[in-house]
Design a protein that fits this description.
It comes from Saccharothrix texasensis. Helix content is 41%, strand content 12%. It is α+β, with helices and mostly antiparallel strands and 480 residues long. It folds into two domains: 4-359, DD-peptidase/beta-lactamase superfamily (Beta-lactamase); 370-479.
């Protein structure tokens, strides 16, 4: 979901210290040490990790537990979130390889149901969907805060009254429905449900028996549920309602992601040599588009802090995160599935540390400012509540000092501002996330203690407002 666009920035922006003279041996014990230390420092409940080198599996393992208390293993099915986009891209490439579509075909030529309230939509190509240059935008199509959808067909139909924000091919913008349209295109062209096509063309050939797809948050199995941390402690919560198939619906495991990483680094051939794509198709997905030097087809393209080539993608749900990285120069692959939400970015942070391990760089200290913020905001909450109670109890005294009705109303209006902010907070958060669409139900997962403080302020403001209006009305009645 929301902040998958930040995964490459997170990896490349963190200063991990100078390189050592020689890279250490990257083996299972070294991987375990990195992950276990991170869990000790952050109270991360559960995480699964895969590290590969060439066609070999260095380590696949689970650490910690699910919200139900079950141990996380290398076969535990967890949410891949926006890492799913690379799977959708490969599903499309399988159709390209068979000659059933071309990347530069217009989408509507194969998917007539894809219509929008703007003639420019007719020029959107398959490539535009996969490299996020379709012109579609959260600012013109609200897929999270709009009416709910439950299938890929409904997701495409929901776009009929929307418009592109830019001409196709002229601007890069991360927009989840691009990949939902692509997945629906696969369904129609292949004549199979998207889940079945992905299983037949990708999962089964690679031996990814733990993997499947989900349509909505309600389809997540208990093992893919996650947490939000408050005061540094994990709180198990259900994922807020959302549709994500095609853009974020893959469910997978560390064991399965190891096979996927090997195929990506091995020209489309899995651990046993089975091919799921041609080397040309794999290279195509890893090649930046002309409109963005940092995004290919379902993958970000950049460099590590050491300057080595990096092909990666992050995934963010509100209760879990995921990350995958390919290091073409060394032949390593890294994947992480963590059961805490995007507020913490734990999968991306562990991925950055494992990249540092591979490159022989010093790992960064863990920096989690959220606990201090939670302490401050929760500390302010009873203070705000007490001030509201005091204001309500002293409302008669307040009314007795007011002579002008207009001035009284003007003094009361600010009391409604916390309620106004509370009801529109998702729009404010959307602006903070560069115009991304956010539903109101998702905001407490991002800022839980702030929402608690704001809710107390809103209720307190309304209580004081009502008490003062009643006191002012009573004073006027007695005066009359």
């Amino acid at each position: 979901m929301i902040t998958s666009i930040l995964s490459t920035l997170i990896v490349s922006a963190v200063s991990l210290g100078p390189a050592t003279a020689a890279a250490p041996t990257v083996d299972g014990a070294a991987v375990d040490a990195v992950v276990r230390q991170y869990r000790e420092d952050t109270a991360l409940p559960g995480v699964a990790v895969a590290v590969t080198h060439g066609t070999e599996v260095v380590r696949t393992a689970g650490y910690g537990h699910t919200p139900d208390g079950d141990p996380v293993s290398k076969h535990t099915t967890m949410a891949a979130a926006s890492v799913s986009k690379s799977f959708t891209a490969l599903a499309v490439m399988r159709l390209v390889e068979s000659g059933r579509i071309r990347l530069d075909d217009r989408v509507r030529a194969h998917l007539p149901e894809f219509t929008m309230a703007d003639p420019r939509a007719a020029d959107i190509t398959v490539r535009h969907l996969l490299d996020q240059t379709s012109g579609l935008s959260d600012t013109t199509h609200r897929s999270f805060s709009g009416p709910p959808v439950h299938t890929l067909a409904e997701a495409v139909a929901a776009m009929r009254d929307s418009k592109p924000a830019a001409a196709p091919g002229t601007r890069w913008e991360y927009h989840n429905p691009n990949f939902q349209v692509a997945a629906r295109l696969v369904e129609v062209v292949a004549g199979l449900p998207f889940a079945d096509h992905l299983r037949r063309e990708v999962f089964a050939p690679l031996g990814m028996a733990d993997s499947r797809t989900a349509d909505t948050a309600s389809d997540l199995p208990p093992s893919a549920a996650g947490h939000v941390k408050v005061l540094g402690l994990p709180v198990a919560l259900p994922e807020p309602p959302a549709f994500g198939n095609g853009s974020g619906g893959v469910l997978t495991s560390a064991h399965d992601l190891a096979a996927w990483l090997i195929a990506q680094n091995n020209g489309g051939r899995g651990p046993d040599g089975t091919s799921v794509a041609t080397p040309r198709s794999i290279a195509e997905t890893h090649t930046p588009s002309t409109a963005s030097p940092s995004y290919g087809l379902g993958w970000f393209v950049g460099v590590t802090p050491s300057g080595a080539p990096l092909v990666d993608h992050g995934g963010d749900l509100f209760t879990s995160t995921a990350y995958q990285a390919l290091l073409p120069a060394s032949g390593h692959g890294i994947a992480v599935l963590a059961n805490t939400g995007m507020r913490h970015g734990d999968a991306q942070a562990i991925g950055a540390r494992l990249i540092a391990l591979v490159e022989g760089r010093r790992l960064p200290p863990v920096d989690d400012p959220h606990t201090l913020v939670d302490v401050v905001l929760l500390g302010l909450t009873p203070v705000v509540g007490a001030l509201a109670l005091r204001g309500a109890l002293r409302s008669r005294r307040w009314a007795a000092r007011r002579r002008s009705t207009a001035w009284t109303v003007a003094r009361l209006l600010p009391l409604a501002l916390p309620l106004l902010l509370l009801t529109t907070i998702h729009r404010v958060v959307g602006l903070l996330y560069r115009g991304r669409d956010v539903s109101w139900a998702q905001v407490p997962y991002l800022y839980p203690t702030f929402v608690v403080l704001l809710s107390v302020a809103a209720l307190g403001g309304v209580a004081v407002l009502v008490a003062r209006l009643a006191a002012a009305a009573g004073r006027r009645g007695s005066a009359g």
